[in-house]
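Assess the record.
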Amino acid sequence: MSDFPTKPGLRRDVRARRDGFVAGLDPRAAALAFSTPPGPLRGLIDAATTVAAYLPIASEADPAALIAFAVDQGRQVALPFVESRAVPLRFLAWTPGAPLIDGPFGLRQPDRATAGEVAPDLILVPLVAFDRRLHRVGQGGGHYDRAFARYPDAIRVGVAWSIQEVPFVPEEPWDIALDAVLTEREWIARDRGDA
């Protein structure tokens, strides 16, 4: 990787690294990863009314235990609903075990015919790559950056494998940094209250 990576190059390289890392994980270690939220994230979940999360695709870090913790704490959970690249992402209320439909890009998502739109105050975010400045590379559609702009007061926490960290993520004027990243090894946060 050069000193000045491009986002497409980062996506290709880090996805391959992530796939190899996850394929080589001991099943017991994989089961324990993200199984218990660290103290700062517990505090953010406790302070939230609605926690938006995601269902992983391929080798993405799985926030299922974090979702279960939020539900156990009585928080409303939401999942992203995507129509297309051109339409902004929305968050629809969801309860674990409730039916899902197939969405674009391999997503499983709530059905907007039966699930209402909600405004999250904590967003658990999938990502492809991140750096210590808490900039992220996503899938390339800009869905989450537009959602961050729509909900500027929501706390943004990336959930990723440590192998997805890179020295530098190039940023565009519309990119919005995360408040924190949780990996299987550590909690990385900017100085913003509990985040």
Observations:
- The mean pLDDT is 92.
- The chain has one domain: 7-189.
- The two ends are 30 Å apart (CA to CA).
